[in-house]
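Annotated sample (chain length 135).
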Amino acid sequence: MKTLTIVSALLVFGLTSCKKDILEKATPTSNIVPVSNFKEIKASENFDWKTSKEINLKIFGFKTASPISRTLIVSSIDDKIVFYQGLQVMEQDGLIKLTIPSHIKDIKVTYGSIQKTLSVSQSELQFDYLTPIAE
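Output written by the structure step:
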């Protein structure tokens, strides 16, 4: 029993001490050149330096029997970022110019209980107050 314990301990010690030390053998790549100012940075001609994009949200008014005004909110899908918030009269057309981060693919437009998701793949977006009737 004593021999089995000693052999087991030696075996465990031997297996755990055979790991490679990756950090010691890492060498820096030769194609990385340190730069001291921004003008020295080299990038592909196709690289887009912009971190934001401009979009226009065109709002189509809807005639109502009496004036209705609510807060129109344009936000990220998860509501963490609000790009625009303002009072909007439902009967009036409008145009809102927005600057949003380039990584945003969709936005949410909320007007009272009306919520619509719009893809920002184009620079011109359209919003109206009509909602599909649930079947």
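Annotation: Residues 56 and 97 are 5 Å apart (CA to CA).
Annotation: The longest helix spans residues 2-16.
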